[in-house]
Specification:
Number of strands: 12
Shape: globular
Largest sheet: 7 strands, antiparallel
CATH superfamily: Jelly Rolls
Structural class: mainly beta
Helix content: 10-25%
CATH topology: Jelly Rolls
CATH class: Mainly Beta
Strand order of the largest sheet: 8-5-10-3-2-1-11
Number of domains: 1
CATH architecture: Sandwich
């Protein structure tokens, strides 16, 4: 039996947006999978790292497409290069740090819906080559509670 999955073209969901100094886009929204999972892409510059945080609802799977990235999951550090994968289980503090000039990650969230938090806190990219706008980390953190996402510590640094 062959399953039929929706395909997505240049839909508004796939348009890039700025998030915490990097770019993100939703490749597969939860609405297309019955909220079983969602898929996002993140393109971040060297030194980019979100605060150490915990997802209470979803597991996170990171796949490095380009660049070198260190993933911090609990007390472990994993240094990954393109083609390698790391898993951030729900309930476990985690973060990542871009160690190369830039990195591109494909990230699966299961179950879905957290992509809505990213979208609500993002700022649409007006033109290619734009610089990231300033962001209000306090507002981003405050909005996370509704998605059962909490900050557990500062971001890792180079």
């Amino acid at each position: 039996m062959i399953n039929s999955f929706p395909t997505f073209g240049a839909a508004p969901e796939r348009e890039p947006f700025w998030f915490l100094g990097g770019q993100a886009r939703i490749l597969l929204p939860g609405s297309a999978t019955g909220n079983a999972l969602s898929l996002m892409e993140f393109s971040d510059p060297i030194g980019h790292a979100p605060p150490l945080h915990v997802h209470e609802n979803e597991d996170e799977l990171w796949f490095v497409l380009d660049g070198e990235v260190s993933f911090f999951v609990g007390d472990e550090r994993h240094d990954l290069v393109p083609g390698q994968v790391a898993h951030g289980p729900r309930g476990v503090p985690h973060s990542y740090l871009v160690r190369s000039e830039g990195a591109r990650l494909a990230v699966v969230f299961s179950p879905a819906c957290i992509e809505e938090w990213f979208k609500v806190n993002g700022i649409q990219v007006a033109e290619a080559g734009d610089l990231p706008p300033a962001f209000d980390l306090g507002a981003v953190v405050a909005s996370a509670e509704a998605f059962r996402l909490r900050v557990a510590g500062p971001p890792p640094t180079l």
